[in-house]
Amino acid sequence: MDKRFKPLSAIEQMEERRALFDELAADPTLPVPAVIRKIRTTLRLTIAEYAKLCGVSARTLQDIERGESSPTLATADKLLKPVGMSVGAVIRKRP
Fold this sequence. Notes:
Shape: globular
Order of helices and strands: HHHHH
Number of domains: 1
């Protein structure tokens, strides 16, 4: 956990995660870099910590968050898996 933050209790962590999922569900068109960064910062992890947790390099994660590179589906899946999410498609309904 990022040392700049006071640790959260288990209840506070669950509230933060629920709020995160609600926020992400409310805007399914949010770009992948923004989603990944939002997840990481909500979990209060540094780039190095989240990269290690996901099994990707810190440089790869940093480049994705900055929008300098696009993740493959496999990498995106690795980045979402620790929070129980998976890669999906957003289908826009036509009126």
